Amino acid sequence: MYRAPLEDLAFVLHELIGAQALAGCPAYGEYSADFADAVLAESARFSEEVLAPLNRSGDQEGAHWSEQGVTSAAGFRDAYRKFIDAGWTQLSAPTGQGGQGAPQMLATAAQEPWASANIAFMLCPLLAFGAAHALEIAASPELRRLFLPKIVSGEWTGTMVLTEPQAGSDLGLIRTRAVPEGDHYRLFGQKIFITWGEHDFTDNIIHLVLARIEGAPQGTRGISLFLVPKRLVDADGSLGERNEVRCLSIEHKLGIHASPTCVMAFGEQQGAVGYLVGQANQGLPYMFIMMNAARLGVGLQGCGVSEAAFQQAAGWARTRLQGRARGFPEPAPIINHPDVKRMLAGMKARVQAMRALTLYTAYQLDLATQHAEQGVRTAAQARADLLIPIVKGWCTELGTEVASTGMQVHGGMGFIEETGAAQYLRDVRITAIYEGTTGIQANDLIGRKVGRDGGAAMTALIAEARAGLAQGAADADAEAVRIAALEGLEQLAAATTALLRLSAEPERAAAVAVPYLMLCGYVLGGWLMARAAQLSATKLTGARRAFYAAKLSTCRVYAGQVLPNALAQRRIVEAGADSISGTDPALI
């Protein structure tokens, strides 16, 4: 049975990041550790009692499509009603739109248990959060008035509508067209892979759709963003007639079966009514507002599912009796076998490093939007922009690795659906694909983030990390973790220099982009784990000594078993480009 990792979530927020880390943000003047703990405890309760019991049944039943629409798996609609009644959709939304205005780092921490307990359910509010954020920033006052409060309240949900059958990730190829008509447009086109594009949770669904106004430039420069409601909304906010938006089918997927992934038709006859969001031909920048929020959330999903897979595997290993182990009469619980210990300890170490990096990134977003000093806001935004593709790419790739290892811990029983281990692997596998594949994240990282500023943001982060680890630790284990983390930072600095030399040759740089992204994740995770080890080493005699001893042990596992991957990635970055760029596709 899943249990939310409350103690470690609180450790990252209150100790690793710091309870006073938001002191320079006036909007968060009432934030406190006690408040954060209360929110996390309630998130844990909701996840354990409401969401987790539906995870397996939702996977087995899935969503149901008919000509009348999509029906969610049993229990999901009621769970959503409880979700909005508890106010979860409002937690981080601006107070001016009916939200609670909580820090992004707290909201992100509260969302992790949702991802662990039921990733298919979590996807629906995740996209609504992104839609609300995009409308808050880019929509006209009238569109915000009509639509934003009900998305924030959860009365309506939101989607992100990008992909088309012929375009895939190349949004410059989209064909959905928008025809002006008075104060609105008529949209015609078909979209695919629309998560929760149709469902029975709410009376209305607000689609944010990329389309091309007739006569617009070709490619990404001619894309605009439109708000297309499932049902039209009158000037007084009441629901009108059904818009010309229809779900043609839902995809048959490897995992996340309870999350309907829809094929959507817009304007099969007269055209779907849509409203321009922001300026014409600026749709892609606006959509990236949603995508950045979603990419952080998807990285969190990689971490969250990993936590659940770890708990499942550890529980199995503590009760599965097999073979001989020192100090135990045979048969012994398999958790005592060295290789099983290696797998489980490595899973736990990866999860905790992912959690630390994800919440640290969310914290940077808080500084970027709310800190009183402009210089701090600018630097924090640059750091968040740098980290988001790393979080999305690294955490989801590791999520697949951790879930696969969890199956391995189960042995042959892991391949049997009844144990539940296989579902975590099936569910988490999509996270490295949707909202931009790992390759897309890596190209964004080396091009827009590292290449565009000549490595300035990365260099600043490495320098800060080195400075924070400059002082030696009295504890031998913490010192070993510190030294390993510093060595990792040297690997990252060298690889960044090598990457910048390749930047003049985009094809060669792209050939090592994913290894560079993974290197960043391993090393930055190692830096945060080293800081965690230093903090834990000073508290081994207090009331919570068992937690800190376990934390220190996990940090040591990360330094010894996980962080060495950085060396391999550095060597690929420095010397592996030609082996790919020089390969004729005909020879593959």
Biggest sheet strand order reads: 4-5-12-7-6
- Can you give the mean pLDDT? 96
Poorly predicted regions: none
Q: What can be said about the biggest beta sheet?
A: 5 strands, mixed, barrel
Shape: globular
Helix amount: 55-70%
Terminal CA distance reads 45 Å
Number of helices: 18
Secondary-structure element sequence?
A: HHEEHHHHEEEEEEEEEEHHHHHHHHHHHH
DSSP summary, beta strand count: 12
What amount of the residues lies in strands?
Answer: 5-15%
Computed Rg: 24 Å
Derived from helix and strand composition plus strand pairing, the structural class reads: alpha+beta
What do you see in this structure?
The protein has 588 residues and is an alpha+beta fold. It has a domain at 450-577. The chain is built from 18 helices and twelve strands. The protein has helices spanning 6-18, 33-61, 76-85, 104-117, 119-138, 141-153, 283-319, 338-370, 374-410, 421-428, 438-451, 456-468, 476-502, 506-511, 513-537, 545-562, 565-575, 577-581; strands at 64-66, 69-71, 157-161, 177-181, 184-195, 205-213, 224-229, 231-233, 239-242, 245-250, 261-266, 272-277. It has a five-stranded mixed barrel. A two-stranded antiparallel ribbon has the order 1-2. The chain has a two-stranded antiparallel sheet with strand order 8-9. β1 and β2 (69-71) form a beta hairpin. α4 runs antiparallel to α8 and α15 (513-537) runs antiparallel to α17 (565-575). The two termini are 45 Å apart.
